[in-house]
Structure formats: C-alpha cells, structure tokens
Amino acid sequence: MKRVTVRIDQVASIDSLVAATERASRGRRTKPGVYEFLRDLLVELDRLQAELFAETYRPAPMRQFEIRDPKPRRICAPTFRDRVVHHALMAPIGPMLEREMVDGVCACRRGFGTRAAIAQCRRQLARGAWYGKCDIRSYFASVPHQNLLDLVARRIKPGPVMRLLENIVRSHEDSPGRGLPIGALTSQWLANYYLVPLDRFLLEECGVSGYVRYMDDFVFWGRDRETICCCCRELPIFLRDALRLELKRPPEVNRSRHGVTLCGFRVHTGFVRLARSRKARFQAKVRQREWEYRSGKIGRAELQRLMDSALAILGTCDTAAWRRGWRATRNGLGWEADV
C-alpha cells in the first residue's frame, strides 16, 4: 500500500486554521467558549499556529458528561480550540482514509448516513437469503491506540502530522492504551477507519454477497445459512487477533425475509418501521417536551423547534398507522405536528 506525505503546513497554515474555525463554529457562535475564541481570532490562530509548527500543542482536558440514548454513554467534549485543530487535521487526512472504505460503510461520511444505510440494507435483503448481524462490545472504549496508529501509518508517512495525530489519540484513555472519546471529530474518523480490515475480511476472505456497516454495527449477507454461520465462527477469532476487539453478543443469524434491525429501524424489503426501542425513546422525548411547555420552561416557538427535530426521524420510515394513533392526543399543545 502506497503511503503519502501530509505536510504540517496543510494543517497549520492560516488558511487551513481559518477554514477549520468556520467549520467548527457552525451553529455554536453564541456559546461562551466559541465567542471568546472568535473575539480574539487572529491572536488565537497565531498562537495555535506557532504551537503546531513547534510541535508544542497539547490537547486540553475535555468536559465529560453522561447521556442515556438509549444506553448510558460518557460524552467527552473537547474545547473549541481543540475542535479547530481536529477539523484542520482531518481536512487533509480524512479523504485519504475514506478512499479505503467500502461503499457499505455508511457512518460519518458525506453523502451516506442513516438513510443510506437503510437503503442499502433493503437492497441486500432482497438479494441475500440469509444474514448475520453483529456489533462490537464497548467499541470506542476498546480501540487500542497502538494498533490504530499502526493502521493509519500504513497510509501516512511519519512526520509532524503523524506525531500530532498520535498526541491527540493518546491524550484520552478509557483503560491503559485504549479508548477514543465519543464526541471528538477525530474519534469519528478513526473509529470508522479502524474497522476497514474487518470490511475487507468479510468481503474478500469470507466472500459475503452483501455488507452494510454503521460504525460498529454491521450486517452481512450470504446465499445460505452455512455461509453465514461459517463467517460467524471466524469473526471472533479475526477480531481478537487482528483488531484486539470482541463481539458484544453472539451474532444474530436469520432469514432476510424476516427483516433486520439497524440504526433503530426495523428494515424489510418492502417497508421500514421504527424499532420498539426507538418508539419508546420518541414517546419519552415527546412527553418531556410537552411537560416543559406546560410548566412554562419553554415557549411555543421553542416547542415547535424541538418537536421538529424529534419528528424528523419519522420521515425515514413508514409510520403512518402509528402516527395516526398520536394525532388525536398530541394536537392543541402549541405545536403543529403532522403526526
């Protein structure tokens, strides 16, 4: 595999840092940390550029908090200054990493996403008679730093940019030598890229007929049950030996005509519906927003904005019958929801 050189000026030039600042500040300009950085933009960028060229830049401690969506997750929010560096770094590196990804990889890629994953899943359900579905145990917290850096080093030559990337990767640990922080741009790219060997293993060595992956959740198809079961027997060994990861649970093996759950949706060849867990989360979110409106915490305009965000997910699937059951009880609360 041919390696390429990424120069530090591709990351640390003023033009690159200004463009990174613009991307990192979209929708966040009024937040205190962002406003303070933008207020003294030239001074901040000059200081940041000097640190990057001198290789004295060090990431600041991240703000950490817990969410439950739907399971408990620890989110690590980098400072805005670090976000600028992440955007500047991934601008030249990201396209190089993406060129190795197969079309079935749908997470964190321009032009892909949840809708693309569902569309590809529907096509594969119509083509393959059997499928296997897997996900990886505590994926972000389990990624080994050295293995990840060795994999990236196969694409990028040693130099200041690789040392900067290593500095960022090693600044966070969930356990000794492992873990990527959920909430950082670099983590999205690197976590997506780390499973490229898995994609190649299934498509080239196991010979599956179809494949869709959304971060660490992946589904693969075959002509018969034996093909899928053979892949499922080899998968844990490959993950352990090549990537130092393990599956969360035994793979799910089923006929394609029964449908598959992916990204919170129950996907069939002819229709897509919300999974039960996704319905429960949607209902809980609606009740929370209505309580906030009734108690005066938010106004009508804010309720409408929040509900538009919650309702956007319904446009991805066939929920007409389920939505009709909500219409009678959800109107008259100050928001115009076509549910």
Topology, element by element:
Blueprint: H1 9-12, H2 14-25, H3 32-39, H4 41-54, E1 63-68, E2 72-77, H5 80-98, H6 114-127, E3 130-135, H7 139-142, H8 145-153, H9 160-169, H10 185-194, H11 196-205, E4 210-214, E5 217-222, H12 225-243, E6 252-255, E7 260-262, E8 265-267, E9 272-274, H13 276-294, H14 300-311, H15 320-330
Antiparallel strand pairs: 1-2, 3-5, 3-6, 4-5, 7-8, 8-9
Helix pairs in contact: 2-5, 5-10, 11-12, 13-14
Can you describe what's shown?
This protein is of the alpha+beta class and 339 residues long. Helix content is 52%, strand content 12%. The protein contains 15 helices and nine strands. The strands form three sheets. Strands 4-5-3-6 form a four-stranded antiparallel beta sheet, with helices on both faces. Strands 7-8-9 form a three-stranded antiparallel beta sheet. Strand 1 (63-68) and strand 2 form a beta hairpin. Helix 2 crosses helix 5 (80-98) and helix 5 (80-98) runs parallel beside helix 10 (185-194). It starts with 8 loop residues before the first helix and ends in a 9-residue tail after the last helix. Residues 332-339 have low confidence and may be disordered.
